[in-house]
Amino acid sequence: MTVDEKGMKAFAEQRANLAVYAAANLKIIDKIGNEIFLRLNEAQTIIHDSFEDQLRRILRVRKIVVKARQQGSSTYIGARFYKKAASERGRKVFILTHEDDATNNLFNMVDRFHKNNPLGARGGRRNAKELDFPGLNSSYAVGTAGSRESGRSGTSNLFHGSEVAFWPNAKSHFASSVQRVPDLPGTEVALESTTNGVTGEFYERTQDAIGGIGDYEVVFIPWHIQEEYTRPDLVTEDFELSDDKMVGSPSNGESLFSEREYADLFQISDAQMAWRRNKINELKSI
After folding, report:
1. What is the pLDDT of residue 234?
2. pTM for this one?
3. What pLDDT score was predicted for residue 9?
4. In what order do the strands lie in the sheet with 130-133?
5. Which of 21-30, 32-41, 171-180, 244-253 has the lowest mean pLDDT?
6. Are strands 124-127 and 27-29 parallel, antiparallel or unpaired?
7. How many CB atoms lie within 10 A of CB 20?
8. Of 82, 235, 256, 259, which one has the fewest beta carbons inside 10 Å?
9. What pLDDT does 1 receive?
10. Cβ burial 85-111 (10 Å sphere, 16+ → b, else e)
11. Cα(170)–Cα(98) distance, integer angstroms
């Protein structure tokens, strides 16, 4: 195989495989401030496999991602949709977040993708919140769910709802944002959020999906798959898991399981349980 043939093969693999494409072309800022290439972590890989599986089965994606904080779901969906907008024709991406800071962060992330990406289509900022790829008739725009009208106008074929459980005017935004996306092959709607209680539009839609109502499917990402969510330094000689069922949820102080039962059920190490206990204690003061 010649050098040119190897280059063409590598190029084709990147275009066909998001994980390969991201690791070679898309730069992110990691949790300690370093600029690195995006290599999908375990949570992102679970989301990716789930999206691709549904796309194969029903020719479109309708997913609800329920996740812990800082697992990279927004980064994954941002990379997925950016790759499509920057390399495929007629891709109209719209992202709706719960607050202005999140909107800015997600757009800046995608803007960084594009500025450092040698394979991205020609184009750039149309304005402060939109990338435009005129040669492909594609675009990538973000907005904030701050008013009842945000996300209502226009048509999208790739929609990402970020931290949906925290949207103000959630019912109105659900109706308007989902209506932007035609029910056609190749379209994708990804709704992701941490939890925010057992009421509200996101909770109800998640329950519908769990019950098999409609096209939406739930992807649940447990916190304990994150490698960094561990505190071996807190596992001292006197460390012991509690049998008290009142040690649990930071939302109401109760849990269905004791620490010991929880760890046994989900096969969680003492170091991970120490991280969990410490995090619950932190959240009690917030």
Report:
1. 94
2. 0.87
3. 53
4. 124-127, 130-133, 138-144, 92-97, 158-162, 188-193, 61-67, 217-221
5. 244-253
6. unpaired
7. 14
8. 256
9. 52
10. bbbeeebbbbbbbbbeebbebbbebbb
11. 10
Burial classification of residue 184, based on how many CB atoms lie within 10 Å of its CB (0-12 exposed, 13-18 middle, 19 or more buried): exposed
Q: What angle do CA 138, 28, 69 make, to 5 degrees?
A: 100
User: 52 vs 56, 144, 145, 164, 225, CA distance in Å?
Assistant: 6, 27, 28, 22, 20
Instruction: Please give the residue that has the higher pLDDT: either 150 or 36.
Output: 36
Summarised one tens digit per residue, pLDDT across range 145-200 is 875 545 444 689 999 999 999 998 888 888 888 888 999 999 999 999 999 988 89
Dihedral over alpha carbons 251, 217, 181, 113 (to 10 degrees): 70
Collapsed DSSP state (helix, strand, coil) of residue 125: strand
Q: Kind and range of the H or E element at 23?
A: helix 18-25
Residue 14: closest CA among 79, 90, 58, 78: 79
Lowest-confidence range among 81-95, 108-122, 225-239, 249-263?
Answer: 249-263
Query: What's the sign of the alpha-carbon dihedral 161, 163, 168, 174?
Result: positive
pLDDT per position as a tens digit, 126-148? 777 899 999 999 999 999 987 55
Q: Would you say 191 and 63 are in contact if contact means Cβ atoms under 8 Å apart?
A: yes
Measured CA to CA in angstroms, residue 221 lies from 21, 280, 285 at distances of: 23, 18, 25
Q: In whole angstroms, give the CA distance from residue 218 to residue 148.
A: 26
**How far, in Å, CA of 131 to CA of 181, rounded?**
19
Phi-psi region of 197 (alpha: psi -120 to 50; beta: other; left: phi over 0): left
pLDDT at position 251 is: 47
